[in-house]
Amino acid sequence: MSAIRAVVFDVGRVLVQWDMRCLFAKLIDDPERLDWFCSTVVTEEWHFQHDAGRDLDEMVAERKAEFPGHDDLIDAYATRFLETIPGNVSGSHEIVRDLADRKIPLFAITNFASTFWRQFRATEPLFDMFGDIVVSGDEKLAKPDARIFDLAARRFGHEPGDMLFIDDNAANVAAARDLGWHVHHFEDAGRLRADLQARGLLG
């Protein structure tokens, strides 16, 4: 029998696709300008501050001052974030459903801004299957900070050694492993399913 009693998912790039270019490619026709904007103005590194709990209005105002002439595009980040989520990661939702069918407790830890999470959560019934979801923007703690994993363990009611944590980010996986969690570094649903079968969590 597997020692794992619960499975904990990341959300972005494990359960759903996420790419800021999906939004900005609709707004910027020139490929070179698109590359520049997504690597310099609205970057994933900058966005991470909002995931970690920084105020959106403050971030947007600061960025507009730093990059004048791009107000409409920076506003689009704030008002059209769901367009950065183009769809589900192939095969992952089926795995969640299969685990739920086997009565395995499901949880999530996601780096996701509070407002954006509420908007997205309302569109995705898959998360009705989850017992609890720790959202970085709500807690003002973000992976790979050890404190968010400790908080999650307390909330979920399981010891780290009783849980499998699944994430696409190597730093997050390493942080969880160092704290005693079982881990899976997500690459695709096929490899995840094979790992879950090898651990006896799926047939």
TrEMBL record:
- The question of whether Cell cycle is a record keyword is answered with no
User: Hydrolase among the record's keywords?
Assistant: yes
Task: List the molecular function annotations (GO) for this entry.
Answer: hydrolase activity
Name the domain of life this protein comes from: Bacteria
A Pfam family that this protein carries is Hydrolase
Q: Which UniProt keywords apply?
A: Hydrolase
Q: Which SUPFAM superfamilies match?
A: HAD-like
| InterPro entries cross-referenced by the UniProt entry | HAD-like_sf, HAD-SF_hydro_IA, HAD_sf
Q: What is this protein called?
A: Hydrolase
Organism, scientific name? Novosphingobium malaysiense
